[in-house]
Structures are given as C-alpha cells and as structure tokens.
Amino acid sequence: MADLTEALATDPANWTCPAPLRDQGVVVMGHGGGGALSAELIDQVFAPAYGNPTLAGLADSAVLQLGGARLAFSTDSYVVRPLFFPGGCLGDLAVNGTVNDLAMSGARPAYLSTAFVLEEGVEIAVVDRVARALGAAARAADVTVATGDTKVVESGHGDGVYVTTAGVGLVPDGVDIRPQRARPGDAVLVSGPIGLHGVAVMSVREGLEFGIEIASDTAPLAGLVAAMLAVTKDVHVLRDPTRGGLGASLNEIARASGTGVRITERAVPVPDEVANACGFLGLDPLYVANEGRLVAFVPRGHADAVLAAMRAHPQGAGAALIGECVAEHPGMVTVATGLGGTRVLDLPLGEQLPRIC
C-alpha cells in the first residue's frame, strides 16, 4: 500500500487539478470569468487580431475623440442564468452593466443599442418581461435605447435569451480616468457592500436558502460618479468590480499602473449574509461579482471629501475607505488580515461563479 501511495504521489500522470490548465487548446468556462484565463485569451487571441492604440488601454470603455467631443464607447454581452433573480433580471443587468462601464470613464451615458439572441421555443412572455425590464432600467438610468437587433437560433443552441448592449456617452473636459493613473498614496474607496449580486444569482440557481433573501445590487452608477467628480475631477481610477469581483479589479489596476495595492480585510464592507453564504459555499467574497458597486483610486488629499459625497448619494451610502496604493510590491495586491497577517490577493484563474452577468 505504501508503494502504491508513493507511486500515485510521484507520477504526474496521476495528478488532477480542479482548475482548467493554462495550455488548453479549447475554450473553457474560465476564459469568460474575468481572471487570468480571460486575460490570456485577450492577450493571445484578440489583441493581436485587433491590435491598435485605442484598444490597448483595456479599460471598461474606450475614450474616443470624435468631431471635437470626447466619447466613451463600450459593449458587453449578458448570459446570466437564471434570467430572473432577487433584485433584478437579465434586462436591467444589460442596461446597468453598460451604463456603468461608461461611467467608469467619467462619462455621462446617453445612448444604448440592444441585440437579443433568442432560442427557439422560449416563451414570448419571457422575452416581453426581459424587454420591459430593460426599457425601465434605461429610463431609470436616463439613457435612450436608440437601435437594436434580434436573432433566433435553433432549440438547443442557446439558453433562452442572450442580450448584447453597446453604449456611448460624453466625457467632461478635464476628466482623465483610467487604470494607468493609479499612483502611490492614492486612497482606495469602495462604494458599498460587496458580493450581493453573485450570491443572489447563485442562491436561485442552486435552490439554496440562507434564512434571508439576498438581493442583487444591480444599479446604474453614473449619478454617483457625477457626485464624485463634482468634488474633484482628479479621480484617478474607477472600476466596477463585476466578473472576478473586487479582487480581479484591484489586480487589473495594480498591473496596469505598475503600482502595489494594499487593503485592510476588516475595512471591506461584506454583509453578514454574504459572508455566511460564502463560508457555506467555500467562496471568497473578494472574488464574488457585483453589479452596482465601484472601486475608486483618489488622491489622498481629496479622499475624505469624495468619500463624504459618495455616502450622501443613494448608490454610495455604504462607501468605505479600504486601503491605499503603494510603491512597494508593484503589480501586486496584498490584504492585511484580521489576525494581523498579510496575504496576497492574486488574480483569479477563472471565476468562482460562472454565468452571472
């Protein structure tokens, strides 16, 4: 028995790994998770195919000069399962996600396009419900759905309804928000409790009950960003921590700017119900997706005033200062734990909870 155990331990052919290997020759779910596999797919496939200076910024939206105006432009696809979940559905998620990507460049969102891919056999009532939610969310976000498209695929070749939205907005003069602008000394702010969206979707998908309904945080953030910019236009970085959660967003910013990021675990607002659910499911809340939160890097001299403005806005009532940007460990994120230690918060390989946005 000892010889068998040793053979199993030493022969690599007997090793298994629950995560997808990095040299996969096919697409795996992790490639859509917003982590290291997604970054590799972009770096190795899409960037070489499309490569240009505008794309190279890899921000939530591209900022373009057009006819003397500065436009933010973004596109995103939504493949959430289930279509309806506590606090929202595919329709409002599609609006808020794109509106928020524009807002992360400091833009005032103006127009959206929508493209529906419908699976043969899906009930018209379901499509109508998604479309009505999308329209209501657009009106709430003060954007116009200006154009769209619809396609139908054969039964078994879709998942009910997929939606792709693209959006444009105007970037005010003097605003320059992008991940490369993070600087040592910047305060790191988060706009409210994290993890709600990912746990809300998972609870419905898996039929889990945690003693209290956990609702998604999906919401438009352009108004919150405008309130922050009213304090100072010198906001360095904004990011909405969707796929891969806060952990992925902080790593992307650290790597893009060549700086280090240090956060304090106890300062990060994690609701008790999210912490309990994550403990039950074996998840790290820092990697769980959000759809109505942002993380901001702000010069320390403006941080208190920006934080106060955030807390005065409905979408920033739970805002908190969670850390700082540092010169040490460039490109790396560290977490000061509640026990007095320090751990590295790495870029996740894939996503703990797939198909949630």
From TrEMBL:
Residue ranges constituting the PurM-like N-terminal domain according to the UniProt record: 60-171
One Pfam family recorded for the sequence: AIRS
Coiled-coil boundaries: none
Domain PurM-like C-terminal as annotated: residue spans: 183-329
GO biological process, one term: protein maturation
NCBIfam families for this protein: hypE
Protein family membership: Belongs to the HypE family.
Name of the protein described by the UniProt record: Hydrogenase expression/formation protein HypE
